[in-house]
Write a structure and sequence with these properties.
Two copies of one chain form a homodimer. The first copy, chain A, is mostly helical. The first copy, chain A, has ten helices and no strands. In chain A, helix 5 packs parallel to helix 9. The first copy, chain A, binds a DNA duplex through helix 3.
DNA sequence: GTCTATAAATGGATAGAC
DNA sequence: GTCTATCCATTTATAGAC
């Protein structure tokens, strides 16, 4: 029998103290960062005592790492989001582009990225983890796709890693760079389709075989 | 008569205590971020007492803001770097592209960007400042250039802001995104010319008038 | 498991001498 | 201007009762 809080919870026991702590840690870490967020504030936000926090998590560092690892998995590229590599280039690239843009435009994911970047000096593995599970994963998928299409003669891609990076930059860059610095969205979700299609068309214009 | 330390100093009085403090603050803030860096550590790194730090700077926040403002100005787009808007598209875009890439590949500027992004929650104006003086400035220059070329009939650019963002993403994105998360360079300065030329060619392929 | 209370250390900022 | 010494608040982490 589902209660209201089940809808927003992520744990098996949504009302348990430990899940309250996890939620509080997530909110505070993502909003203020690692250093500013104190274990006191997490305990207060979760509505438990500080001793309870320490009974579930060894220390602040472990709580932070677990929190961010969960965020990486939640916002990484899920298997069901993987695009069909047998689809024709327009379709494949456009759907990948829309996926990239929707990720970049998600304010929750922006908070995750900012926190990861901000704490990179103290937690360098976290940045690599996020990259490989998220945007890096997508780039590799595009790289492999381009390599195959080149081999099949459907596209002409002399440098697949560079072309994949350029496609990603073309579709995500316009929004990602200003967004990460200013916080202001330049385009909205309504523009996703248009931008992805423009980028795809532009990309294919120079990667189609000359004859045929 | 120049001493050795003059070569690395930026102040009018390179040996002065205040410049030593500035240099120490720069090193520590850029390497570890705002929160982790203590006034004690800055004083120690500068080789002065903490009281001396406070006699030159009101508090930690002011020292940080002054430090990062200096970094923004140093790494922003300088007037002499501004590209010639009367040059033909290949030349203008390629040189702007190379400028963008060289900025993104500079490890010192990467440290600045990471610090700014990391402290965005506490110092939001700093991100806007960096954007407008650096990459945002370049994007505006490209936008204006494309608008003029479109009006002159040299290029076909229905949406200058989007096209400018895409060009910037195409040339800087491949390096910027992985670099900011993993710290690993994908390409080196030797690739700058090739990448900028590739991006320029790709961009122009879809923005040249059909009959022409 | 959960609480109140506290230990131990650190950091921002200042007092007062020279 | 510069130093040593110090105050005060905060923070991580733990002790011990229930």
């Amino acid at each position: 029998m589902a209660t209201e809080s089940d809808l927003h919870a992520d744990d098996a026991y949504p009302q348990s103290k430990v899940s309250q702590i996890r939620e509080a840690a997530r909110r505070l870490f993502l909003e203020h960062g690692y250093e500013i967020t104190s274990m006191d504030s997490i305990a207060a936000e979760a509505g438990v005592s500080k001793r309870t926090v320490y009974s579930h998590f060894r220390n602040k560092e472990m709580l932070f790492i677990e929190t961010m690892e969960t965020m990486c998995e939640r916002f990484g590229v899920a298997p069901h989001e993987t695009n069909d590599p047998t689809a024709p280039p327009e379709k494949f690239l456009c759907s990948v582009g829309k996926l990239m843009l929707s990720k970049v435009m998600d304010p929750r994911l922006q908070a995750v990225m900012r926190t990861i970047i901000g704490e990179l000096a103290a937690f360098p593995e976290m940045g690599s983890r996020f990259w490989s599970i998220g945007p890096g994963n997508m780039r590799i998928q595009v790289t492999e796709y381009l390599r195959e299409q080149d081999a099949a003669g459907v596209l002409v891609v002399p440098d697949p890693p560079l072309s994949a990076g350029m496609f990603q930059g073309m579709v995500a860059g316009p929004q990602f760079m200003p967004m990460i610095f200013t916080g202001d969205p330049v385009w909205t979700v309504d523009d996703i389709d248009r931008i992805a299609r423009t980028a795809t068309a532009q990309f294919l214009a120079t990667h189609r075989p000359k004859d045929g």
